[in-house]
Amino acid sequence: MLTPEEHQRYARHYSLPEIGTKGQEKLKQASVLCIGTGGLGSPAALYLAAAGVGRIGLVDDDQVELSNLQRQILHGESWVGKDKLESAKARLKETNPHVEVECHKTQFSASNALSIASQYDILLDGTDNFPTRYLSNDTAAILKKPNIYGSIFRFEGQISVFAPHLGGPCYRCMLPEPPDPGSVPSCAEAGVLGVLPGIIGSLQAMEAIKLILQLGEPPLGKLVHYDAPSTSFRSFRLRKDPQCPLCGDEPSITELIDYQEFCGLNPASSTNPSSTHTMPSITVTELQTLLSTQLNGTLLDVRMPHEVAAAKIESSMHIPLADIPVRHTELPKDQTLYVYCKGGVRSQKAILQLAELGYTELINVTGGIDAWREEIDPSLPPA
Fold it and tell me: What residues are annotated to the active site?
């Protein structure tokens, strides 16, 4: 039942005959799991709370960084360095104290996804990496729950609702195979206009509310693309693939898998195309030991210039990944190249390119500068 204070709070909803008291009670009884409290999860969770969705689950294991505040509007400067979940919960409870906020401080993974997601009616994917997108998709399909998808890139965004149990396709129907590791830049690499995730995340919240209220038509079998520079929306039809291994006529995926390996992000499985041996790697602790004595080789940073300007490992040489085909001649072929990036993905791709160009002594720095900051030098600013 709605309290008198809630009746006053949702008065503008009551003015809409499509919602009214019954619709507001549906919202209060509903539950949505927001996977991630970043650029997309922030506006989505805020509007779900403001609308009166009764139970909101949040999954995140990250901390608030200063670079988040340009777009992640759940968080403020006083929360920098603290847990995102605590920041998000405080903000949502301030927005609407009648909403129950449940925090899952963990990385959404194949080992916990089903147990967490089974507690909610709808999944809202606010992540920015392919392994978790496939995981969210598969989890929702197995549990027969809608998965509200959103993604952003520079000045563009897109949304859809994947729900095979409602007759639509799933994410695998749209993208059967993940792109090669490092081929699609992250927001940190390519940049994103801060207001863009606000637009896409708000649209995701809208679709969740529509599903709860059974209002209008969700974009099942439709990918909606938004282009900010031209202020235009385009819709692309998505077909359900009868050969889809998850939701097709004869599915082969009936349980969750190793999504890091599926997306080619397991360093142990990354191989040099000219060799059958596993790609050599080194931890940041081992690298520090070598640097403290005398590094017999060259330390190569393949991140973008703005990332290097924010933080770098001293004595490293810088060539962005995209420039390697042109500038590789600046690198010595008679020395070992220790290659690092932000987290270890672009450095692996750089090593594969350099191997094709005739370089033989190549070692990947596992975890990149993120691991260096965490384990060696916490004073480095986020980059």
Answer: 187, 341
